[in-house]
Amino acid sequence: MDATQPGRPPAANSAGLPNDVLIVEDDALIAFDVKETLFELGVPSVRTAASVSRALTIIRERAPDFALLDVGLIREKSFAVAEQLETLKIPFVFVTGYAGGTTFPARFASRPALDKPYQREALLAVLNNWRGGLKNG
Question: What pTM did the predictor assign?
């Protein structure tokens, strides 16, 4: 995304973290906890979606700088969101509570993933690398 678009904040804040993170997570408590952690780390804007359709709407309205995608949502997988983010060249990381049990489509097999529950330090490491190496192609 062009950081100079009118009405769009710069892509990174002074700490080098993304300015706007989308969390796709169906568990409200986890989403709240991650959102609060991101604010504490210095991310100024954090939005959440509990479904694929809501996430796609949020992306259409204003694309985030970075996204954390829970793989397994209530009745769906977040791969359609990943496809849209990839098309827009927005970096993202999968988050899963199924350590090794989730089968990723081939196009996402090399994407980084955080295993739940993850520590604040693991989240910060992902955020510190959000621009380099997290984008495919």
Answer: 0.83
